[in-house]
Every structure is written in C-alpha cells, then in structure tokens.
Design goal:
The structure is a single chain. With 679 residues, this protein is an alpha/beta fold. Among the domains are: 287-403, Serine carboxypeptidase S28, SKS domain (Four Helix Bundle (Hemerythrin (Met), subunit A), Up-down Bundle), CATH 1.20.120.980; 558-673, no CATH class. It has helices at residues 67-80, 152-158, 160-169, 195-198, 203-220, 236-247, 273-283, 289-303, 307-316, 326-345, 362-367, 377-392, 407-411, 414-420, 444-455, 463-468, 525-549, 646-649, 671-674, and strands at residues 23-26, 103-112, 123-131, 142-146, 172-176, 229-234, 254-258, 352-353, 357-358, 479-484, 502-507, 564-566, 572-573, 580-584, 592-596, 601-602, 620-623, 628-631, 641-644. The strands form four sheets. The chain has a nine-stranded mixed β-sheet, with helices on both faces. A hairpin with a 3-residue loop joins strand 8 (352-353) and strand 9. Helix 5 packs across helix 6. Residues 1-59, 652-679 are annotated as: Disordered.
Amino acid sequence: MPAPPRLRVTPPRWNESPSGRAVVRRRGTAPAAGSRRPPLPAGPARGSPRAGGRGGAIKRRGGGWTPFLSAMLRLLLVLLFLQAPGALPVSPCRRGGAPPVAPYLTRYLTQQIDHFGFDENLTFQQRYLVADQHWKKNNGPILFYTGNEGDITWFCNNTGFMWDVAEELKAMLVFAEHRYYGESLPFGNESFSDSKHLNYLTSEQALADFAVLIEYLKATIAGARYSPVIAIGGSYGGMLAAWFRMKYPHVVAGALAASAPIWQFGDLVPCGAYFSIVTNDFKKSGMGCSESIRNSWKAINHLSSTDAGLQWLSNTFHLCSPLKNLQDAAMLKNWLSETWVNLAMVNYPYKADFLQPLPAWPIQEVCKFLKDPTLSDKLLLQNVFQAVNLYYNYSGEASCLDMSETATKNLGQLGWYYQACTEMVMPMCTDGVNDMFEPQKWDFDAFSDQCYRFWGVRPRPSWILSMYGGKNISSYSNIVFSNGGLDPWSAGGVTQNITDSLVAIVIPDGAHHLDLRSRNPLDPKSVQQARALEICYMKQWIEKARHLTDPLAALGFVAEEALVTWSPISLVQGENSGPLSVKCGACMGKKGISTFPPPCSLLMCPTLKTVLFDCPSTCAREDRRGSRGRYFHAEDSPPFSITMNEAIKKGQALPGHTGGERRLPPFHPTDEVSTCHAN
C-alpha cells in the first residue's frame, strides 16, 4: 500500500522566538504543525540528494556512494531507528491494546546552538511535548523521552509504554526533539546547506539540549523543582538515554535504554554479529528459509548478466521502474537485503502497521514461501517475490513495487547520514557463511573517502568510545538496558548485568524495542515480565531520588540552602503528629518538641552538610503565607534525636541519634523495590 501523503509545514526559524506558544494536540492524531520528511538518496544512480526538504542542495564534494556503502548507511538509518515518523501510516497507539488518545502540549525552548563554546551566540527553538494529566504535582516524577533522529510527535505516538505507566507512576511525560530533526532546526532552512552548519549536530550537543530543557522545566513548572527525572529512549534514543544518565547523573535519576547498541562501535563486537542475528531469525522461522535467501543472490547475479534476464527480474518482481543495468540489479539486492532486515526488526507477535501493514510473526509467514532452497533460479526468485510482496503489499492494493518505497524513503533525514559520517561509525560486514547475505568486508578507508566526498568531513571511529567509555562503564549507575532476542541490534547492546545498578534485561521473544510499544493482549510473557522489571527499577530510582532531594529526607545527605520553608500549615508545637519530629533544646526559642506538619519542605544551610542544624543563627524558617518564623540557634541546643513515623516508613521508626552522631542512617529502599525480579 502506498505511503499516505505527509504534511508540509514551515517550522519556526532559528531566529524567531515562539516562546510561550502552546498548542493542544491529541496523541495519535496528525500534528497540526508536522513536518514533511524528505526522500533518502537511494544510491549512486539517484543523483544529488536534497537538503531534507528544508532548503537548497547539499554542496557535495563529488562522487556517489558505492552500492554497499549506500546500503550500509540505509540500514543504519532504517534499522536502528524504526520509530521514525513518516514510516507510519497511522499511529500504532490508536490500535489494539493501546491507551486512549491523550492530550499533550507543544512548546518551544530557546537553546544555544553551541553549548560548549563561547564564540557562537546564536540560538534556535527546540520543540518539546508535555503531557501532565497524570502528574502528581509537588515533585511527582518526570519521564523524559530522549528524542531520536526524527519528528518528535511520532516518537510520542509510538512510545506507548510511557503512556501506559504514566498514571501508575503519577508521572509527567516530556518528549524532547533532537536538534536538526523535525522542527528543531538550528539554522532554519539553511541547516543542511553545508557541513559548517551541520557541525553542531552531535550527540553531545543533543544531550546538553536535554539537560538545559530539564533545568528549565524544573525552574518554571510549579511543584517540579524536586521531581525525579527518568530518561527513556529506544534505538538511538536509547543510546542517548544511557549516555544522558552517564554524563548528567545530577539531572536524571536513571535511564531505560531499550534496544540501545552502545557497543556497536570500534571492535567491541564482531562486525558480522548483526547480520548473523537476522539470519538466525529466518533460520528458526522455517526450514530452508535462510538457505533460500542465501541462494537468491547468485540467482539474481546470473539473471542480471543479460538484458533478457533484467527484463525477467523486472517483470517477476513487478517493479514500477524496470532494471536497466548491473547497477540497478545491485540496487535490487540492496532493496531485498533491507527488506529481510526490516522484517527482523518488526517481527512482532501481533498485527502491526509499523513500517508496513504486517501479520503477526511476519517472518514465519514470509518463510512459508521459502521452503526449498534447491529450486532453479527462476522458481526460487518467484518465491522470493511472494515473500517480499507480503511485506510491501500485504493489503493487496499495490499495482507494482517501488524500490524507493522502503522504510528508508520515509526515514531518510540527511542528518543521520551526517552523524554516521562523523561520530556514529558502526562497522558492519557479512561473510555469506554465518549469515545469509552476500560477502562484504568492512572497509573503513573506503567509507571515510565516501563521507569526505559527500560532506567534506572524515569520520572519527573511536570518538564515541572515548566520550562514553565503551565497555568501561562499571562506574555508572541506574541504567536498565533492554534488548530483544530477535532484534539484530542486540548484537551491540548490553545483554548481561554489569553491576547491581547497570542491569540487562533480555526479552527472548522481543523484536526491536518491543517493550516500549503499548501493551497488547498478544504480548509474550517475556515482554510483560520485562516491563514489570523496568517499572520496578524506575520506582526504585524515583524513591531513592526523592530521599536524596526531598528536603525532609535530605537531612542525612548534602545540604543546599539556609532557608526553611513550611507548608501552608504553620509549625505546630506540642504533640508529635507529623511525619518527622525534631527534638532540640532551642526550637522556636523554647524547650520542647516541634513537629514538621506534612507536607513540608526543608532546605538546609550550605555549612550543614553532614551535621544537622549546625547553621549560623541567620538560618530561618518562614511559611508560604509570608510570615517570618523564629530562628534556630543550633549552637545553643543540646543533643537531639530524629525519628520518622508510620507515615514515612510503615511504622518502622529509625533509631534515634544523639550526642556526636547527628546524621540520618543511609538510605534503604523499601522492601517492594529493593530487589526487582521477574515473576
């Protein structure tokens, strides 16, 4: 079925400030201010690509992509980032098992184009989406989606897991758009005009955007100052979520990194592992299936050697544009390879319209046509056509198959081409033995030359390892890496626990970030258990973050300020009726017990740090009604004790601390979240 028409709009220019503009939109509907995605350059025969539909032609250095390098970039673009927008005819969140349509606000924040230098003072407008209907004000958690390489509205629509758990966690949802994608264009229509404008398209700059956005939200949204933030992302977004926690642990309390191949760099994993997993998916889905695909390449090579054979291939595959030469035949093979990989990515247990309308477990259906690898060339390729026709024409409405109508056509933002040619260098290769594809070595020098001819830049294959640590990440914490056993990107993912707080969850029956999709009655038990574990860890991070940042619980940790603020309920003397009681000799200038009524917040003196109330006499308290309270004179106080009542710890009072010991004991998570395990 042909892809539906996409919306064309004019995004705000980088020097315009739509601050304060808020547009109410409903999740699952087409955005009123969406953006048309450009076609992807489909190989050397296609000519010079355009700048993402956003401006003039890219200034190329000359030369086209070799078929394999073009295919590799297409695969990197398609397969790592299947959540991208234009590939979706209708938002999956409107289908079976999905939550109801929910409203969100579209907002924009002025961001620095360059966060790490002081010479460039230009700014741009970053788009972000906010949904807070389930948010518990006064420091409820924030689930923050680290946007991928595409229009953020579609990521919002395709991350049903966040919408499913928002009510349970009483969380605000924030979806942040990645710079250079969607409407967040640093140089407006000129963003893709040359490599100088693209110089600020890096993961580091994107993470800095996210950090600034979170700080802005906490400073401007009433009740969000101490809200724990959990980063969530899938594919490249999952990589960003993990890296966000690594680089900004003071901003995000934890991260869920789904299908995030953070180790698909350098020589951390074999370059052929990715395609081996694709092959295994087909091999175990039907006898003779992977062997039939392996034999199909020789059959195409044989038939494409003559004009008559090219015509036969064009007719057999019902191609909209006939094959004319060997270069076109190479494109046919790239197109078929892309199809097999796409199927591995979207091998979901239920019908889905992700890249194409597909049946449940689509590889099993495809393999029904590929049972006999010993057939003659023509009979074998006729069966291959039946298999790909199921992928591209499951609805039966297409009159011909267009090799440009792949996921890459819709996912094709030039921004990712640039990223793949700079820091996102992921080596891949095939050998035709451990996989079902034609042999092709990874040739970095050739890849680098192609990138230089196209962009005028050279890739830095080791930069990501230097920046984010490669496999040396044991010093980090609070990251869950989830990977599907059917997902070829799991080859570069974290699939074993590293520490108690760097946790790997493997979903044997899961394709690409299945756990981030909306709940579905046909979900395998393995993904149900994975989601339960993910929620468990998120609750644990949220509770610990609250203990560290909630002003009452923070008494035993690092102090921040001198001012003590109260809830609208004033300080009450006398009987212990609140969650936290402080007994000291000079509270309110009198001997006795003072109770902190709930809810209350306490910000401590900078000099406090590890000693309670060791503050100068200028430290004061005041209620929110503005009446000034009396001073604590801790230096005049005798030893005191602190307890937490049933409202905080289910009746388990903490032991009192007197004399020289003036700290709360270390944080211990509650029994429900101290150990997460599958049921």
